[in-house]
Amino acid sequence: MSQFMVEFILPEETTEEFIAKIPRQRLKINKLMEKGKITSYSLASDRSKLWCVIKAENDIEVMEIIAEFPLIGYMQATISELMFNNTATAVKLPLYSLN
Fold it and tell me: Which residues form the Muconolactone isomerase domain (predicted)?
């Protein structure tokens, strides 16, 4: 299984329809994170971009996953396969003894 970085460009102006779909988007993301399909999900502070790392067999599977996002109609996606994706939780730190 490979990992893919998906960068989404968000609309400059949000509509009421867009805002109304945010709770469904968050619910979908949370479910995919629970299943281990999405390992990270980040929003730029200016709300112009969104990034997520998706575990999938290929870019077609990634497209199938993001096609289910409630907000996909408002976003432009760019998919990049990752060679690796280091995270702090993946690094094993030595355990300290309190003795």
Answer: 10-82
Please report, as a single letter, which amino acid is at residue 24. Answer: R
Q: Which residues, including other chains, have CB under 8 Å from residue 52's CB and lie 6 or more apart?
A: 5, 6, 8, 29, 38, 40, 41, 42
Question: Would you list the domain boundaries of the chain?
Answer: 2-83
Tell me the pTM.
Answer: 0.85
Mean pLDDT computed over every residue of the chain: 92
Which CATH number among 3.30.420.150, 3.40.50.150, 3.30.230.10, 3.30.70.1060 corresponds to the domain 2-83? 3.30.70.1060
